[in-house]
Every structure is written in structure tokens, then in C-alpha cells.
Amino acid sequence: MLRAWTGRGLRAFRDPPFLFALGAALLAWLLPEPGIHLAWYRLLLLALLEELVFRAGLQNLLARSGLIPGRLGPISAANLAASALFAGLHLVHQPLAWAVAVFFPSLVFGWAWDRHRHLLPCWALHFAYNCFFFYRI
Q1: pTM of the entire structure?
Q2: Across-strand partners of 71?
Q3: CB within 8 A of 134, min separation 6: which ones?
Q4: How many domains does the chain fold into?
Q5: pLDDT at site 7
Q6: Residue 5 resides in a domain
Q7: Three-state DSSP class for 67?
Q8: Of 96, 101, 132, 134, which residue has the fewest beta carbons closer than 10 angstroms?
Q9: What is the pLDDT of residue 136?
């Protein structure tokens, strides 16, 4: 079972649009440095938790239930709604500019969910974006 789970998710790493999205993590260098450094394992766990809640949970629920149908090009309406909520919740601990900046990567993570229907690509993108933002690697 684990092999089937990871095999499906690992196929994303051979998908050129996914690899382009992964490379776009470098754009995090254009943002101001956050001034804090979270431990890498916290970035890993936070990315997993957030992707479980917002992709496998909320976005999947919205898409499957038909509550928010439609698409805007490659972006589903369910992705737009989940990303808006994701960015809005960042307002609790971050300034408006950071919350707005979170919206666009969230769309990329949601696009990966729509395209691959697997948590692994979303998690990998989220972790990579966080690493480039917090560590400037």
C-alpha cells in the first residue's frame, strides 16, 4: 500500500510543470527576509499539517462536493477558496503584505493537488517554498 501511495505522488517529480513550480520557489528570495528562522523540522511538519488541512481537507471537500464549481484557467475555484482562507488565516500572526504574499504560493500548492491528487507534491512544494523563504537556500 505504501508503494502505491508514494509511487503516485513521486510521478509528480517527472512532470515538467511541477518541476517548473518547484523551481519557482526561488522567487521567495524576492520577498523581504522574515527576520525569524524556524527549525527545518518545524517547516516540514507545518507544511504537512497545512497541506493536510487545506488541500486534502478543504480544497478536496469543496471540489468533490460541487459547492464551488468552475475554473479560472488551470486554477480551480476550490483552490481559489482554499487559498483565500489560507492567506486570511496568516493575518492572525503576520502583517497584511505577508498574508497576501502567501496567497500566490498557496495557489501553486492547490494547483499541484488538482493536477496530481496526491499530498506528496503539495507538501514538497510547500516545504521548498518555506525553505527558500526562511533560509534563503
Answers
A1: 0.89
A2: 76
A3: 34, 36, 37, 38, 43
A4: 1
A5: 75
A6: no
A7: coil
A8: 96
A9: 80
CA-to-CA separations, 94 to 101, 102, 105, in angstroms, rounded: 11, 10, 16
Instruction: Tell me the three cell numbers of residue 68.
Output: 464551488
Residue 8 lies in a domain: no
Q: Domain range holding 129? A: 15-135
Q: Alpha-carbon distance 16 to 21, whole Å? A: 9
- What's the confidence (pLDDT) of residue 51? 97
DSSP states along 15-58? -HHHHHHHHGGGGGGGSPP-S----HHHHHHHHHHHHIIIIIII
End-to-end Cα, the chain, rounded Å = 34
Residue 46 domain flag: yes
Q: Is residue 9 part of a domain?
A: no
